[in-house]
Amino acid sequence: MQFKIRHRNTPLIEITPLIDVVFLLLLFFMVTTQFTTAPGLQIALPEIKPGATVTTTAKINISVTSAGDIYVAGNPVAARNLKQVLTKAAPDLASTIIILTADKDVPHGKIVSMMDTLRALGIKKMVIAARWKAEERKR
Description:
The chain has 139 residues and is of the alpha/beta class. 30% of the residues lie in helices and 19% in strands. The chain has a domain at 47-137: Nucleotidyltransferase, domain 5 (2-Layer Sandwich), CATH 3.30.420. It has helices spanning 16-32, 82-89, 108-120, 134-137; strands at residues 47-48, 59-64, 70-72, 75-77, 97-102, 125-128, 131-132. The strands form 2 sheets. The chain has a 5-stranded mixed β-sheet with strand order 4-3-2-5-6, covered by helices on one side. A two-stranded parallel ribbon has the order 1-7.
């Protein structure tokens, strides 16, 4: 008796649909992710009404906590060393935008003296950070 020899076909895994699904998942997560920088400092910003937004490439963030501590780009800085740190951070201060993020409990005089120091360095573009009022955000 002669038996037929069966040849089993090896299963093939199609990788093209798998790559398509992985690409779509990657695209979905990239689009839904928020790309914001969250500072590690606890600063309660004052509230404002919506206005114009500022966009540029040369930015330096200066933060002032409620205790009066100054941070430049997240690094603590003494007030007397602010000029040296800023000139090292941006050689062309005239075209650099300074984003001043101060806690709402910081005395007004401290912010004004800091702005005066920044103006003396030749900085012409300053922005004071604030957050939207709750009722304005719902629009």
